[in-house]
Write a structure and sequence with these properties.
This protein is an all-alpha fold and 444 residues long. 77% of the residues lie in helices and 0% in strands. The chain has helices at 5-41, 49-79, 81-98, 101-106, 116-138, 141-168, 176-195, 202-233, 237-265, 282-294, 301-323, 332-340, 343-363, 367-397, 420-438.
Length: 444
């Protein structure tokens, strides 16, 4: 069990349904697929117990999750054909309305968007540094321009999809993983045609395209959610859009050094000799594996195919549940993520979902306690993230004060009582989350 309060909070926010589906994916991967693989192929040499199980998961089972994620991404795009067309139609209507004099003089304040020129001109100007970055990565002007065109088209298309889904259902239904997988696969295949399968810069080039499209889709859904909320309270859209640009610029300036700091302190993604226990980045590791497979590094395709078959089976089961009108559903990407993640993470997320269900049963549909629980959970995620950055600061100060290289925040080489103190603290955090969510008299 991962003793992270943030994972409890994530489980609380997504609810018992999604958290349970993720955990079921973990059970499928760790309790069924892993023993089956060990039974059929034997244990890794010189490994026993937990070390053998971890080796089987990292070297084999997680590729089953990759296959299921691929199918989930393709299925997501298939179901979004109609929303894509509707969003493009709505955009064309908006452009036509802004071109008329009537819209400029008679449009209500709450319907006035930023002028189209304010959007198009910065967008075109931003393509110039992106083209320079892409050209630098691949050392080819022609391929760099091709990458820029692919990135711009994919970002426009998938940002429209994300905005449509956010306006219709909410930003929680934003299919970021699916569109990013599709973008990286498409970009990888196109780059292979122009660069060759053995080009050393190929995987990085495809990932840079996917990173931009991923950010565009994520921000598109989030911005539309903000605009929808502003519309409900009578805000002026163009003022909101202006401040959204300020927020994007601020985030871009801050995010890069923060991620560099976390990479230097903890490592991100794959374990290395310097960082044997890095921060988990399952989706980023998945994207890297996809690009390496297209550019010749290879994947264990039988296992990926097994994951794809499992994904198809999950989709069929989910469709059956949908037709029967049942409340319980099996979203394929959630199951695939559970297969791909370590079971200890899925278990912690499931515990958060259980707390959410218990709190909901206690307070019923009362909105105020529910909002308090969500705010408290969001604070747990933010607080853990800020503490991680704070603990990583000595790495940034090593150049000025070499004494920080010893990490002054480390009190023990090994915890004196093992994981029990952490378990006690996480239990207390879970109890506090439940207490806040249920709105006990002290919290009212």
């Amino acid at each position: 069990l991962n003793l992270s309060p943030a994972l409890l909070a994530v489980g609380y926010i997504i609810g018992l349904h999604t958290a349970l589906v993720v955990f079921l994916g973990g059970v499928l991967g760790w309790m069924i697929l892993m023993p089956a693989y060990g039974l059929l192929n034997g244990l890794p040499p010189d490994r026993t117990g937990l070390a053998a199980a971890t080796a089987i998961w990292s070297g084999h089972v997680r590729y089953v999750g990759i296959g299921a994620m691929l199918i989930g991404g393709l299925w997501t795009l298939t179901r979004l054909r109609e929303p894509v067309w509707q969003s493009l139609q709505a955009l064309r209507a908006t452009v036509q309305d802004q071109g008329t004099a009537r819209s400029a003089t008679l449009m209500a304040r709450t319907e006035r968007d930023a002028p189209l020129g304010w959007i198009v001109v910065p967008f075109v100007l931003s393509l110039i540094p992106m083209a320079w970055i892409y050209t630098t990565v691949v050392s080819s002007l022609v391929i760099g321009l091709l990458m820029t065109i692919v990135m711009a088209l994919a970002a426009f298309l998938f940002a429209s999809v994300a905005a449509y889904m956010a306006g219709l259902v909410g930003s929680s239904s934003n299919p970021v993983s699916g569109v990013t997988i599709a973008t990286i696969m498409l970009a990888s295949l196109l780059l292979v045609l122009f660069m060759g399968a053995g080009h050393p810069a190929g995987p990085a080039a495809a990932l840079v395209i996917g990173a931009v499209v991923c950010c565009a889709a994520a921000m598109g859904g989030d911005n539309l959610q903000d605009l929808k909320t502003g519309h409900l309270v009578g805000a002026t859209p163009w003022k909101q859009q202006l401040m959204q640009v300020v927020g994007v610029v601020t985030g871009a300036v801050i995010l890069a050094p923060v991620l560099s700091l976390l990479q230097a302190k903890y490592g991100i993604g794959e374990p290395t000799t310097v960082h044997p226990h890095p921060l988990n980045a399952p989706q980023a590791t998945l994207m890297a594996g996809l690009t390496r497979s297209v550019f010749g590094a290879g994947l264990p395709w039988p296992l990926v195919g097994l994951g794809a078959a499992i994904g198809v089976a999950i989709i069929l089961i989910d469709r059956r549940l949908e037709l029967r009108g049942g409340e319980f559903r099996l979203p394929v990407l959630a199951v695939a993520l559970g297969i791909y993640l370590p079971l200890k993470l899925s278990a912690a997320i499931c515990m958060g979902g259980v707390i959410a269900a218990l709190a909901k049963n206690t307070v019923g549909q009362t909105p105020k306690p529910s909002r308090r629980g969500l705010l408290f959970a969001a604070g747990l995620i933010t607080g853990e993230a800020l503490m991680g950055i704070l603990l990583a600061l000595p790495i940034a100060l090593v150049a000025l004060w070499p004494a920080f290289s010893a990490d002054p925040f480390t009190l023990f080489d090994r915890p004196p009582l093992g994981g029990w103190p952490g378990l006690v603290i996480v239990t207390m955090v879970g109890a506090a989350l439940y207490r806040v969510a249920t709105g006990s008299p002290r919290n009212r």
